[in-house]
């Protein structure tokens, strides 16, 4: 296994970071997770645009051009054998001389860390045998800028752990009675043939997979609305899906203790999963 730290490739044990790094002291950093299939980075531009936006929102200098990011990601994929891997990349504000909430001035060099992780075969690859996931609803306890892909993931981690402790795989979050997103995913519902997902705002991360699902629905004539979803609409949905770059589109068949639909992945999910896989195969030469 090889990881990348500040310009060099090395074994994970050799990648050492100062405890003065603001990523460690303040969770002052931004990250991305980019899937690669067959060694080909999927929706790479979209991930980089989001990275640039996140960095700009917290005023961390982007240390690389898009071409440099691509080259480094591809090199790391090759160093780890290619195939189906996700690239995790993180940029922190860097190591300051003393611990101070305010940014170091003059600015210090950002720390860049990257690693790869294997991607499990997603449910969408075999829609006929997919079984679906369980989710629970929880209060969204996070901050007011969830659109920034920050490494400050303590609330997300606490929420996901609560879901796991309850025997579920994801927490679907509610703020003031409305669905925001999952602890690490976006949420879609389907009711009477119409698909819905919350609009992009400061309350959710603008998921790359979310955007692709919206695009695929439009392309293939599936009715989709970007609108607020109430807790009641979530509970009464015919289908619930959660989306993320590494899990793609996962059907949820149980919410809290209630069965969703007939307890099986629904027909709209199957249709969408088919389009998603076709799209992925075409782009990645699978
Ligand atoms: N929301 C949150 C809070 C997430 O952490 C993630 C995945 N990192 C997503 C949504 C899904 O985003 P994407 O499709 O870009 O992976």
TrEMBL record:
Its EC number is 4.1.3.38. CDD domains: D-AAT_like (cd01558). GO terms for cellular component: cytosol. It is an enzyme of class 4 (lyase). Coiled coil: none annotated. Keywords: Aminotransferase, Folate biosynthesis, Pyridoxal phosphate, Transferase. One of its GO terms (biological process) is folic acid biosynthetic process. InterPro entries: Aminotrans_IV, Aminotrans_IV_CS, Aminotransferase-like, BCAT-like_C, BCAT-like_N, Class-IV_PLP-Dep_Aminotrnsfr. PROSITE patterns: AA_TRANSFER_CLASS_4 (PS00770). It catalyses: 4-amino-4-deoxychorismate = 4-aminobenzoate + pyruvate + H(+). Its cofactor is pyridoxal 5'-phosphate. Pathway: Cofactor biosynthesis; tetrahydrofolate biosynthesis; 4-aminobenzoate from chorismate: step 2/2. The keyword Lyase does not apply. One of its GO terms (molecular function) is 4-amino-4-deoxychorismate lyase activity. SUPFAM superfamilies: D-aminoacid aminotransferase-like PLP-dependent enzymes. Belongs to the class-IV pyridoxal-phosphate-dependent aminotransferase family. Involved in the biosynthesis of p-aminobenzoate (PABA), a precursor of tetrahydrofolate. Converts 4-amino-4-deoxychorismate into 4-aminobenzoate (PABA) and pyruvate. This is Aminodeoxychorismate lyase. The gene is dat.
């Amino acid at each position: 296994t090889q990881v990348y730290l500040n310009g060099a490739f090395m074994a994970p044990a050799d990648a050492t970071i100062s405890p003065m790094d603001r990523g460690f002291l303040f969770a002052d950093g931004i990250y991305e997770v980019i899937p690669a299939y067959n060694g080909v980075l999927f929706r790479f531009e979209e991930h980089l645009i989001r990275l640039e936006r996140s960095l700009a929102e917290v005023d961390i200098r982007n240390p690389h051009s898009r071409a440099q990011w691509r080259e480094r990601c591809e090199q790391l994929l090759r160093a780890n054998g290619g195939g189906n891997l996700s690239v995790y990349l993180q940029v922190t504000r860097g190591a300051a001389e003393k611990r101070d909430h305010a940014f170091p001035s003059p600015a210090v060099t950002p720390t860049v860390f990257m690693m790869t992780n294997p991607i499990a075969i997603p449910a969408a690859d075999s829609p006929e045998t997919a079984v679906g996931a369980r989710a629970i609803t929880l209060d969204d306890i996070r901050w007011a800028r969830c659109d920034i892909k920050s490494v400050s993931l303590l609330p997300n981690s606490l929420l996901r752990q609560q879901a796991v402790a309850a025997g579920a795989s994801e927490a679907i979050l509610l703020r003031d009675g409305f669905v925001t997103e999952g602890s690490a995913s976006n949420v879609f519902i389907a009711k009477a043939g119409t698909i819905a997902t919350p609009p992009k705002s400061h309350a959710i991360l603008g998921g790359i997979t979310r955007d692709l699902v919206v695009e695929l629905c439009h392309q293939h004539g599936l009715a989709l609305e970007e609108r607020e979803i109430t807790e009641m609409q979530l509970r009464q949905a015919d289908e619930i899906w959660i989306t993320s770059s590494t899990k793609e589109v996962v059907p949820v068949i149980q919410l809290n203790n209630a069965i969703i639909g007939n307890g099986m992945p629904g027909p709209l999910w199957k249709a969408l999963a088919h389009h998603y896989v076709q799209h992925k195969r075409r782009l990645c030469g699978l």
